[in-house]
Amino acid sequence: MTVPAGWYPDPQDQNTLRYWDGGTWTEHRAPAQPDGGAQPSAGDQPGQTGPAQADATTPFGAPGQFGANSQAGQQASPYGSAPAPGTSDQTAAYDPTQVAPQAGGTPTGEQPWSPSGTGGPGGYGAASGGGYGAPSTGGYGAPSAGGYGAPSAGGYGAYGQAVPPPTNNSKTGLFIGLGIAALVLVVVIYFAVKLISGLGGSDPDPDPTADPTTQSDPTPTQSDPTPTQDDPTDPPPAGGETFVWGDTVQVEVPEGGEAVYTFVVEQPGVYWLSTFSERGEADPILQVTGPDGTEWRDDDGSTESDNTFDASLTIGLAPGEYQVRVTDYDDVASSFELRSGGQEAETVQPGEHDFSAADDGAWVVLVPVTDGQTIAVDVTDANEDAVAGITTPDGGYEENDDRRSSAPDGDRFAPYVEATAAGDGEAIVIVWGYSNAAVEGTVNITVE
Q1: How far apart are CA 119 and CA 125, in angstroms?
Q2: pLDDT at 103
Q3: 299 with 352, same domain?
Q4: How far apart are CA 283 and CA 279, in angstroms?
């Protein structure tokens, strides 16, 4: 369908109205008036002497009908519509010498129109079925939608409210172009900054650094000298002599040190070792170690020396070599005598025996045993508090003073002791009085 003739916004100037003759744009233009001002009506045609009068009470006519004040062959063309799709501006450039159409004026050679009503774009105005000035083709009503420069199919209001058809100079296109250009500029700036940052943050020619794997500590050209033995912090042990029972040894104890000797026992028996020193000059400590590691030790137990700080040991020993170590309690250098004595024992069989021990003496016998046998000594009767001990062939030693609760019944002060032999040989049985006092009584020896 074609767009009816009428005044429309000039596609080249949004502030100007231009007359559309139904087929092309004319050269007739008029300034657009602000809202509320006098506007050329849709029925005003260039060349009219006065505005077309429309009967406001007359409804829009149907196709082939006219309104009360309409002229034959004229169709209503309200302001706000645009040229039909596919049409173009065939007029010459705007000539300012031309006089803008006034109300009622018509361009020369053109037939004026008379609207049948005040319908807006998209409304259906009355149209003749082929009268003068009617569209050559198409039906009745508003122009078709779509197409560049064509008016919208939707209705428009009065003049001044219509949206002009888009043109090549549309501000929307300008804004879109400016937006795209701004976006491209931002992207270019971003990558330029990244490139500059990358070039400035790296050193193309870094200073050479030493490879840590290629460096090593210098190898010493001289080997470390062979370490020499440090001087001992303790003085070497004195003594080193070997003696048997009955010998007297002159002991020299170095300051902070010790004197070591070897005591040889050829026969099983009871043997004693005692130190003799001047009062106030020494405080000896005596220690004996057997072949199996058994140790005997005394500090102030001597009863024969005038110096109560002297040491003394009385023990039953099997044949063998025993280490004797002598030190001073105050770690001072000292000099004194070491005396020895002993009593060889006779061999007896298990059973009941009478015993008697003098002051500082002991009753000593040997009892044959085999490996794994247990020998027991039970003092059944004694006139004084007695002490009993057993030395096994391997050097082990057990001793008892007062009977334990696990022992067989007997007097509380009558000792009971037992030991297991490790190896074949003779066990040494010893009985003496408490505090080396004289004692006598009866003893029962069993071997199982």
Answers
A1: 6
A2: 38
A3: no
A4: 9
